[in-house]
UniProtKB/TrEMBL annotation:
Residues 99-145, 249-349 are annotated as: Disordered. Residues 100-119, 249-260 have a biased composition (Low complexity). Residues 314-323 have a biased composition (Pro residues). This is TNF receptor-associated factor. Residues 295-313 have a biased composition (Basic and acidic residues). It comes from Cladocopium goreaui.
Length: 349
């Protein structure tokens, strides 16, 4: 029997056992991962399951750190994203611890050494009756006090972005001595009111730190930008309203043209000789010839003649022959009046 080499594991075996070897014994045969549904070889299935599978459950590397003690578990493909959040959380906790240490009350001063010289003996004085206790006055509200409504908004803001409430309080309230006023706090809160997932915690911390280092000039420039934006929007709306008003006035002045109107005809002004010929009395006999300055009258006559010819060319209406009101005698035709008769009548008038 001849021997052959397995194409997957390069092992040699008899030719008749090759098919059975590739199905059940070969370490290089492809198998599917049950977790990620990926393809690997039979010999590397355990290595893939422990180290290469993107869906395998992993622990946060900071779980053994005593300062952080992160208890996150999840798929390996999300580990890098979690490490960024875990790093920001570690920075938050470190900054909070520093702030708590700086805000802690200082230890009292060391007691002074006792005097060695003898003190004079003073007779005891009679004790006076204690005055009635008065109610303590309410604490004076400072300009930068943290209102209850803003505290609730800040808590909601911290929960929305996954930040520590103490961090938000330190950032927004702990820098009062550096000049952070309530309007600036409102601008900062408004700056980050966008859909979740667009502003990570690290960006919020960097923004606040840059505001502190640069004297809050970013907050002031942002407020100026808001005012400038509102002014531009008002100016744009006013300009559009004025343009619409001007356009409406211009359209009202121009008369609308008729859709069936043809080309504009040239106006004909009769001359003095033509007016005199029309006004002069005519003697009986042949009508005098009109001057050539009357193209409008000739045009009217030609239009009337063309209209009469078009009416005469129209075919009779369709329908069965028979007596009809159309077949009866028509109206009395109007006698045609010539131009000479018109001029003669005008002369008589």
């Amino acid at each position: 029997m001849r021997s052959v080499e397995c194409p997957d594991c390069q092992g040699r075996m008899r030719w008749k056992n090759l098919e059975e070897h590739r199905k059940s014994e070969c370490d290089g045969r492809p198998v599917q991962c049950e977790v990620c549904k990926g393809t690997t070889t039979y010999g590397k299935r355990q290595v893939h399951k422990d180290h290469e599978c993107p869906e395998r459950e992993v622990l946060c590397p900071n779980a053994a750190d005593d300062k952080i003690r992160c208890v996150w578990t999840g798929p390996a493909k999300d580990l890098e994203k979690h490490m960024e959040q875990c790093k920001s959380k570690a920075e938050f906790q470190e900054m909070t611890a520093r702030f708590a240490a700086s805000a802690a009350p200082k230890s009292p001063a060391a007691p002074k050494p006792k005097q060695l010289a003898p003190t004079p003996v003073v007779p005891p004085r009679p004790k006076a009756k204690p005055a009635p206790a008065k109610a303590a006055p309410p604490p004076a509200k400072t300009e930068n006090a943290w209102p209850l409504q803003q505290e609730e908004e800040a808590k909601a803001f911290a929960a929305r972005w996954g930040l520590e409430w103490c961090l938000v309080k330190v950032k927004l309230e702990g820098f009062l001595e550096r000049g952070l006023s309530p309007p600036q706090r409102e601008l900062i809160m408004e700056r980050f009111q966008c859909p979740p997932g667009h502003v990570p915690g690290g960006k919020f911390v960097k923004y606040m730190d840059s505001c502190v280092e640069n004297g809050w000039k970013y907050v002031q420039s942002y407020s100026e930008w808001l005012a400038d934006r509102e002014e531009k929007l008002r100016a744009k709306a006013l300009a559009e309203a004025r343009a619409a008003e001007t356009k409406a006035k211009a359209a009202a002045k121009v008369a609308p043209a008729r859709p069936d109107a043809g080309p504009k005809e040239a106006s004909v002004t009769p001359s003095k000789s033509f007016k005199a010929a029309l006004a002069a009395p005519t003697a009986p006999g042949p009508a005098p010839a009109l001057p050539r300055e009357a193209p409008l009258v000739e045009k009217w006559e030609s239009l009337a003649e063309a209209e009469r010819s078009e009416v005469s060319k129209k075919p009779p209406p369709p329908g069965p022959p028979g007596p009809s009101w159309l077949s009866g005698p028509g109206p009395t035709p109007v006698p045609k009046v010539t131009r000479a008769e018109i001029l003669g009548n005008q002369g008589e008038l």
